[in-house]
Amino acid sequence: MKIVIRPHHMISLGGYIVELEFPYRNLIVVNPTDEHIKIEVPVFNEEWIEEHRSLGLKIVPVGEDDDYLRLWRREKALLESGNK
């Protein structure tokens, strides 16, 4: 399945991680580009991260001990300020 991320938007993929051994509980995906970008879901392995970074997306892994809301707000502020 594919999901389209609009330009200058971000999404959370926590519900699309299906591998039990995946080292992160969530992924924040940021599209800082001016283009719509299709991503492949669900997420099965860590290689997915590098594959999608090569499309121009910023992928922020969220670990068990990370503060998801703090990471989301930081990325949202960076996106709105125009910093990639």
UniProtKB/TrEMBL annotation:
It comes from the Archaea. Pfam families: Ehbp. This is Energy-converting hydrogenase B subunit P. It comes from Methanothermobacter wolfeii.
